Each structure stands twice: as structure tokens, then as C-alpha cells.
């Protein structure tokens, strides 16, 4: 039976409020960081953490905004755009979440993957560029490029997913991302989901969303299964 608890920890000058999900048993298990879209941690990511715990992983859905969910697009952009332009801040948020996993007795510190969506995906990539020993990185809608040469520090496979009609991650951005990964010698994959917009994986919410953002249920399920397959390949759960 999966157990969950809220965890508070400092990062980016805030008190972050993450969601930790633990699988049944008492043994050490591989662990997964789950980073949310720019709006922040929601029940969508909490449910994903719980689903990974059902599969046998210790999963931490980490926070971006000190316990707040930024439903107003302008407020979200005002916080996330400077964050996305500052790799050191992104790494600080990612490392703080990693510290929570390292302090959890059930989490195997030598078997950790990072999966993120949008801003959370950018943070997962920055952990890799910082040389963190991860077993896999997955990023959806977060095909960001980093500072020159730093992608060579990524030591694990990188899987990326994006909607073909995503105006925030257009073809030029996809091409820049894949060129960076290829030049760095990274084991990378890119899946382009036909007809999908930005945040296609995120169920519809009741607040105003920006143009170019929309839910695509079939591709959302496919992207989730692709991430589960990535983890099964790179971070298998062994009983």
C-alpha cells in the first residue's frame, strides 16, 4: 500500500511544500523526482507520484513556488521567466528536492531519475548539466538549452516529449535542444506528439490559460507510458 506525506524544505528563498509517495514495504527503492509545469505543484503531479509509488518507486513531486499554485498566467510568467533564465536558481531548486530524497531512508541515493514538465523539466535538465548522477532524465514541454558545453556533464539517457503544435517549444527550439544533446554525446530521444499543444499532458483547469495551451488526453496517456518505459529501462524496480 502506498503511503504519502507532505514535506517542507527550503529552496529559492521560500519554504517549499512537496509531496512524497512511498511504495509498500520497508526496503530501499529507486527514486524519482517529478517537477511540475510553471504554474506549480498540483494534484496532477501528486497523482503521478502516487502512480510511480504503486510501481515501486519512491517519488517526490517537488514544489516551485512555496506552496502556491499560480493560476494567473501573468503571475506565473513573472516568476518563471526569470527563473528559466537563471540556471543556478533552477539547480538550487532541483538540488533542494534531491536533498529531500537523499534524507529519505527508503530512497536509494545511487538510483535516482528526474522527470519534469515545462519549468520542472528544465530543472531536471539543469541537474544533469550540473553533473548530478542521475539514471535518467525525462522532460515534457521543457526542451531548454543550457550554457555552452555543460550538456557534456549529462551522464544518463535523456528522453524528451513535445507537442507538434506547441508555440512555446516550436521547431527551432526543438532543433536547438537536440543539436545540444547530440553535440554533447548524450543518449537522447525526442518524441513529437502530432497535433498536441503546450501542456498537452495536463488535464484542463478552470482558470484562464494562454493561447497554444491545451490538453490532449490520448497523447497525455502516451507520454506517461513513455516515461514509465524510460524508468523501466534505466531505473528498474527489482524485488
Automatic annotation (TrEMBL):
Residues 18-233 form the Dienelactone hydrolase domain. The keyword DNA repair does not apply. GO terms for molecular function: hydrolase activity. Keywords: Hydrolase. Belongs to the AB hydrolase superfamily. This is Dienelactone hydrolase. It comes from Streptomyces roseochromogenus subsp. oscitans DS 12.976.
